[in-house]
Amino acid sequence: MKLSKLALDIAESPTFALNEEARLLRERGEAVIHLGIGEPKNKTPMAAILSSAAKLTSGEVKYVPPDGLPSLKKAIIRYTEDNYNRLVAPENVIVTNGAKQALFNIFYSILNPQDEVIVLTPYWVSYPEIIKMCYGKPVFVTPEDGTFIPRFSDIEKAVTSYTRAIIVNSPNNPSGAVYPAELVAQIVEFCERKGIFMICDDIYHKLVFDRKEAAPAYRFTNKDVENSHVIVVNGVAKVYGMTGFRIGWVIAPRQLVRVMSNVTVQTTSGASPVSQAAAEGALNGLQSVVEALRLQIQNNRDILLQEMKTFNGARLITPDGTFYAMPDLRAFNGNSVEVSKFLLKKAMVVTVPGKEFGMEGHIRLSISGTVKDVTEGIARIKWALDPTSPNEIYIGDKKMIRDWL
What is the pTM (predicted TM-score) of this model? Predict the structure, then answer.
């Protein structure tokens, strides 16, 4: 069978592959702990459920405008004003099938073949693949000081005449790093001056800890949305724990929104009106659900830090946001793919190799589950890797003895 080279060059999602392997192990009755997937365990906010139920019971589940329902766009406009202190018009907003489609539509709309996008390492696994799917070239900027925060001077050096955009994800998946306001300000000023798009993936922007703040890019530009090179991507998946509803959105100049709407018309036609109603309900409902989720994740983060203190050989930079952590395990094995496979086989713990995020020697842990998931998951990982940890452990109802260290 002859297939497209473009399609064949797109890497398989490591997260989804590991999810499938974990599912098969669970079906066999294995006591798997999933620290791989970025999905909060909260219930869908009641306001979202009631709103989507009302749409369903109305029987009016038909085609919708490709850029989104006017009522949802109104809620997004209010959300943008409340959280970004920025007034936008309906023509500056497009609703998408999740933030992932938002990013695809942006890149498809701004890139020509061989145009470059600066990607800050560590990065979400889909960024390079989406850029390549749009015939662009990802250019990686990796911190050289052992942290997860790049230097502005390195970003500046990576820019060429082919650079069309810099994508910034803070709070960051996979590291949990929150970029300093000074760095965000420097990138905004640089992009506005150079005419380069700054694409802000703000999907985790409210999930920050210890009274820290993910500084919004709009704070550092005096230009209105219509004339700015700042593009904001957001959605309900993470801060509301509504991953399955697949609703994201973009705030951008109206010319870009028009082009993105044309792309949507020829691909998905638009997002489901039932999911859009749910997103509208979440945005208009009680926002205490967001704070409750944030506090739950911060508690999990604090427990993780406590458990990691006794993990000899592992190095962890404290996550300041999201529900991820990225320990450095190079003291045990520099090959993160081997480490993740080993941990799944021996300890029945799902993790994601750091190689997929541009950080070889690390693994990504998701702490979005229960306290038990975090404590038992880290205990199993320590048992599998740290020779100073106890030699015996129970995995489910099976007593396991370590015989490889």
Answer: 0.96
CATH of 46-284, one of 3.10.25.10, 1.20.120.1200, 2.60.40.1930, 3.40.640.10: 3.40.640.10
> Tokens 């015939």, residue?
135
| DSSP notation for 167-196 | EE-SS-TTT-----HHHHHHHHHHHHHHT-
**Closest by alpha carbon to 126, among 254, 38, 3?**
38
Count Cβ atoms below 10 Å from residue 14 Cβ, excluding itself. 18
Cβ neighbours, 10 Å, residue 316: 18
Please, which residues bridge with residue 88 across strands?
none
Q: How far apart are CA 157 and CA 151, in angstroms?
A: 10
Alpha-carbon distances of 270 from 68, 188, 296, rounded to whole Å: 7, 30, 33
Sign of CA dihedral 188, 192, 196, 197: positive
Which residues make Cβ contacts (< 8 Å) with residue 85, sequence separation at least 6?
Answer: 216, 218, 219
Contact 91, 300 (CB under 8 A): no
In the three-class reduction of DSSP (H, G, I as helix; E, B as strand; rest coil), residue 96 is classed as strand
* Mean pLDDT computed over 358-367: 97
- 44 within 8 A of 241, measured Cβ to Cβ: yes
For 272-329, the pLDDT digits (tens) are 999 999 999 999 999 999 999 999 999 999 999 999 999 999 999 999 999 999 999 9
The CATH architecture annotation of domain 5-43+288-389 reads Alpha-Beta Complex (3.90)
**Residue range 14-61, pLDDT digits in tens:** 767 777 888 888 898 889 999 988 899 899 999 999 999 999 999 999
Q: What share of the chain is helix, strand, coil (3-state, %, to 5)?
A: 45, 15, 40
Neighbours of 388 (CB within 10 A): 10
Q: Is 287 left (phi over 0), alpha (psi -120 to 50) or beta?
A: alpha
Which residue ranges make up each domain of the chain? 5-43+288-389, 46-284
| Spatial distance between the Cα atoms of 303 and 168, rounded to a whole number of angstroms | 28
> In Å, how far are 171, 210, 252, 326 from 202, measured between CA atoms?
7, 19, 14, 19
| Residues 130, 134, 139: CA angle, nearest 5 degrees | 65
Q: Which of 103, 69, 89 has the alpha carbon at shortest distance from 283?
A: 69
